[in-house]
UniProtKB/TrEMBL annotation:
UniProt source species: Alteriqipengyuania halimionae
Domain of life: Bacteria
SMART domains documented for this protein: AAA (SM00382)
Name used for this protein in its record: Heme ABC exporter ATP-binding protein CcmA
Name of the coding gene: ccmA
InterPro entries, per the entry: AAA+_ATPase, ABC_transporter-like_ATP-bd, ABC_transptr_haem_export_CcmA, P-loop_NTPase
Length: 200
């Protein structure tokens, strides 16, 4: 399997008439985890979207080697299906090797008969992690992955991220919460001074 790489050079992002950030460089190799921090609305999700290729940069480039696994507040599971069936739909597409193990690891094995729409916020987040683990992507881009999780599940997720990186993966995490992960880097986004063009 090819080693993952995630590199952003001189990256700028504009949303509406606001330049959120500019001149940003990120270079992540196998084993690297990066915590994106900063106040609400500063551009953490926007940066993750650029890194994922879901949005086009205003300036600069993103180079990506390896498939991206994404977590945000949407579980991407059919709300009308029982959780087990909703997960199985993706397992077939993802070619999951050990779905039962991942279901147990995220502690949702007792919820497989419950329709996804009845799951709590934290239960839905756990289910989203089952799907992420099933996919074996080398690059994880996680937007507030600890939101809604209890303390025990948060420790589980921190462990999963650490294991993913020790195994040669890359992970970028936007989070307002501290992350207990050995060796994790930190990028604090702060307010970008408006360009003359913006102020005009
Ligand atoms: N599609 C869009 N069009 C215009 N502005 C947008 C769009 N999406 C986001 N924004 C704006 O871009 C700014 C950055 O949003 P973003 O979601 O990246 O921030 P964030 O740092 O992730 O915030 P939070 O900590 O609240 O999750 C915000 O002011 C937001 O309103």
């Amino acid at each position: 399997m090819q080693a993952p790489r995630l590199k952003a050079s001189d990256l700028a992002c504009r949303r509406g008439d606001r330049l959120l950030f500019a001149g940003l460089d990120i270079d992540l190799a196998p084993g690297n985890a990066l915590h994106l921090a900063g106040p609400n609305g500063i551009g953490k999700t926007s940066l993750l979207r650029l890194l994922a290729g879901l949005a086009r940069p205003y300036a600069g480039t993103v180079e990506r080697e390896g498939e991206v696994g994404w977590i945000d507040e949407h579980a991407a599971l059919d709300p009308d299906l029982p959780l087990g069936q909703a997960l199985r739909f993706w397992e077939r597409l993802d070619g999951s090797a050990a779905p039962e193990r991942n279901v147990r690891a995220m502690g949702v094995d007792h919820l497989l008969d419950v329709p996804v729409r009845f799951l709590s916020t934290g239960q839905r987040k756990r289910a989203a992690f089952v799907r992420l683990l099933n996919r074996h992507c080398r690059i994880w881009l996680l937007d507030e992955p600890l939101n809604g999780l209890d303390a025990h599940a948060a420790v589980t997720v921190e462990g999963l991220i650490a294991t993913h990186c020790v195994g040669g993966g890359i992970c970028v995490i936007a989070s307002h919460q501290p992350l207990a992960i050995d060796g994790i880097g930190r990028l604090e986004l702060d307010a970008h001074s408006p360009s003359p063009e913006e102020g005009a």
